[in-house]
Specification:
Length: 81
């Protein structure tokens, strides 16, 4: 789950595997298949489901708004097989 504490929308990106958005701000989302980015409303929360199938190692989950990324909206993921 990611939390956007910023005062504008954020765009999250996971680099190795596409994901399904399960809910945003507690509201279930229609399943439009897998995607690699999602917009999060300001001060919002999201739940995603991802299957790490084809990659092992380190990768990042981050915001595409650069000043958000620079202020901490970036996570390192360690994916083990």
């Amino acid at each position: 789950m990611r939390i956007s504490r910023r005062t504008r929308n954020a765009c999250e990106r996971e680099h190795t595997d596409d994901f399904q958005v399960m809910s945003i701000n507690g509201r279930p989302q229609r399943n439009y298949g897998f995607q690699d980015t999602v917009d999060i409303p300001q001060r919002g929360r999201m739940v995603i489901r991802v299957r790490f199938a084809d990659f092992a190692g380190r990768t990042v989950l981050h915001c595409h708004v650069l000043n958000h990324e620079d202020l901490g909206m970036m996570s390192v993921l360690q994916i083990d097989k």
